[in-house]
Amino acid sequence: MKLDGKVAIVTGGGSGIGRASALEMARQGAQVVVADINAERGQAVADEIGAEGGKALFLPVDTASYEQVEGLVQETVHRLGQLDIMFNNAGIGGMQVSVLDMPVEEYHRVLSVDQHGVFYGIKAAGQAMNDRGGVIINTASVYGFIADRRQFPYHAAKGAVVMMTKAAALELAPFNIRVVCIAPGLINTHIVDGWRDNEKIWTAAQNAQMRRRIGEPEEVGKVVAFLASDDASFLNGHAYFVDDGAASFKR
Ligand SMILES: NC(=O)c1ccc[n+]([C@@H]2O[C@H](COP(=O)([O-])OP(=O)(O)OC[C@H]3O[C@@H](n4cnc5c(N)ncnc54)[C@H](O)[C@@H]3O)[C@@H](O)[C@H]2O)c1
Fold this sequence. Notes:
By secondary structure, the chain is α/β, with parallel strands linked by helices. The protein has helices at 16-27, 39-51, 66-80, 104-114, 116-129, 152-172, 193-196, 199-207, 217-228, and strands at 7-11, 31-36, 55-60, 85-88, 134-139, 177-184, 239-242. InterPro entries: NAD(P)-bd_dom_sf, SDR_fam. This is NAD(P)-dependent dehydrogenase (Short-subunit alcohol dehydrogenase family).
């Protein structure tokens, strides 16, 4: 029970990596606020945690809105008394077309969630944690480090998450707030549903990991719970790859 007595918010907690991380942090003793734009999925995960004997509640949020992210943090502190762990994880994949054909609105749509939503979470949570310390974990991607085709806005956002993590860690260090990010490889969640129907794309995606398999969300959730715990007390300002070596070799 490494997170006993801690309060955690997980954005995008209704599915995939967020769901697995919320479940794992609750198993480690944290009270978890499952925050998601999809109320049905978010409430289901909060119920799942409750059924396991953990403590969780669902709060709706669109992380593309600063007012909503700030409201989420304030509501959490109001109801649970504190905030110790902020997992800025909500994200979308976006349209897959060449940068030359990328609609400008689509670029802004992806950045509004995948980049700006993370900034909003850092700012709001940092203010709430200010006088007692805490941990902020952001979800980047191997695509924050290596380029692929037809994912330009996603690359822009995830690269920004890596640098926002470093800059925020430096600025929040005086308040004893650690800021780290994870960089997952291909993980078995809804975000990659669109790739599964095309055998060529799906095989190539799996082969991008050293052991040629997709990762399971639970394999990421366990890392997130570790990063949130005091066992990771000297980990700060870096990205941690959860990718079976995907970013370490030439395909
Ligand atoms: N699955 C992968 O292969 C992979 C790899 C690298 C990084 N990631 C990142 O992991 C994070 C989680 O994605 P996932 O793979 O679990 O996908 P997912 O689609 O299963 O889960 C994403 C969740 O975020 C929620 N969400 C989307 N937009 C939101 C918004 N504006 N406000 C609040 N909630 C919102 C969705 O409702 C969903 O519950 C994302 O940031 C994604 O970019 C995923």
